[in-house]
Specification:
37% helix; TIM Barrel; two-stranded antiparallel ribbon; alpha/beta
Length: 276
C-alpha cells in the first residue's frame, strides 16, 4: 500500500445534550471505535450531567481508562457554547494525557446560540496550547476563519502541519453542500499556497444522516473525517445506533472504498508530529 493516501478517523463519542457522564462506558465505547479504525478521540471537559466545566476530574478518569485500553490519540476541546471564560476553557492545554486540543478561531451562530471566540480569546488559546505542547486541530466554520489562521500563524508560528477541521451542517453556519466545501477548500489552498508544508484538512458534519458529503470530501482528498454522537448518531437515514463503533466502522469502510486507508494511532502521531 506504499503511496496510498491515509485518512485519520476521529470519533467524538459523547453527545452534547445533557446526560450522565460515565467514564467506564465512554472508555469502552472508545476502545471499540479504536478497534473499528478510529485513530483519535475528541472529548470535552464535562461534569457528571454532561455540562461543560473547568473541573477535569471526570475527564482525567475517562482518559486514564481509555489509555489503559488502547493508544488512541487523545484530543480535548477548548470550546463549546458555554459560560466558561477562556482560562477555564483552556484547562485541557495543561492536562498530561491530552495530546491535541481544538483551536476555535472565530465566532459564529450555532442554532440559536452564539459561539463566541473573540480574537483576544483565540490568541490566549494559541499561547496556552503552545505552552502546553499540544497539537491544535483548527475548527473552521466560516471562510474568514481561514484568513485568521494565516494571521495567527504569521504572528505566533503555529506548528506544521496545520490541521483544519472544516465544519458544516450546523444551523446558522456553512451548509453541508458540495458548493460550500469547494468554496472552503479553494480559499484554504490559496491562503496557504506559499507555504512549504501543505495544510491538512478534515471534514466534520453536524446532523449527518447519510454519507454523501463524507464520500465527496474523501474523493477530494480529505486527510481526516470526524464522526460520532457529538455530531450524529445516524448510521444511515433509517438507522440510529446506540454506540459509536458501528459509525466508525462505516467510516472506515468508506475510507477504503474511496481508495485510501485509515491511519493507525501511531501513524496519526507521526503525521501530526505529536511529541516532536
Amino acid at each position: 500500500m506504499s503511496g496510498q493516501h491515509q485518512v485519520l478517523i476521529s470519533v467524538a463519542p459523547v453527545q452534547a445534550t445533557p446526560h450522565p457522564i460515565i467514564p467506564a462506558e465512554i472508555a469502552e465505547d472508545v476502545f471499540r471505535c479504536y478497534q473499528a479504525g478510529a485513530a483519535m478521540v475528541h472529548l470535552h471537559v464535562r461534569d457528571e450531567n454532561g455540562g461543560l466545566t473547568p473541573d477535569p476530574t471526570l475527564l482525567n478518569e475517562t482518559l486514564r481508562r481509555i489509555r489503559d485500553l488502547c493508544d488512541i490519540v487523545i484530543e480535548v476541546s477548548t470550546g463549546g457554547v458555554s459560560n466558561l471564560n477562556i482560562e477555564e476553557r483552556c484547562v485541557p492545554c495543561h492536562e498530561d494525557l491530552v495530546e491535541a486540543v481544538s483551536l476555535n478561531v472565530g465566532s459564529v451562530n450555532l442554532g440559536k446560540a452564539v459561539y463566541q471566540n473573540p480574537i483576544q480569546d483565540v490568541e490566549y488559546c494559541v499561547q496556552s496550547l503552545m505552552a502546553g505542547h499540544k497539537v491544535p486541530e483548527i475548527e473552521v466554520f466560516e471562510l474568514g476563519m481561514i484568513h485568521t489562521v494565516r494571521q495567527l500563524q504569521d504572528k505566533f508560528g503555529l506548528p506544521d502541519p496545520l490541521l483544519f477541521a472544516l465544519v458544516f451542517g450546523h444551523e446558522g453556519e456553512m451548509p453541508a453542500t458540495r458548493a460550500a466545501l469547494d468554496h472552503m477548500l479553494s480559499f484554504l489552498n490559496v491562503t496557504f499556497a506559499d507555504k512549504e508544508v501543505r495544510p491538512l484538512w478534515g471534514y466534520t458534519q453536524s446532523a449527518r444522516k447519510d454519507w454523501d458529503m463524507m464520500r465527496y470530501a474523501l474523493e477530494l482528498g480529505a486527510d481526516s473525517i470526524r464522526v460520532g454522537f457529538e455530531d450524529s448518531d445516524y448510521l444511515d437515514a433509517d438507522t440510529r445506533v446506540e454506540t459509536n463503533a458501528p459509525i466508525v466502522q462505516r467510516a472506515a469502510d468508506l475510507v477504503q472504498a474511496t481508495g485510501a486507508s485509515p491511519m493507525t494511532a501511531a501513524e496519526a502521531r507521526a503525521c501530526l508530529r505529536i511529541g516532536k
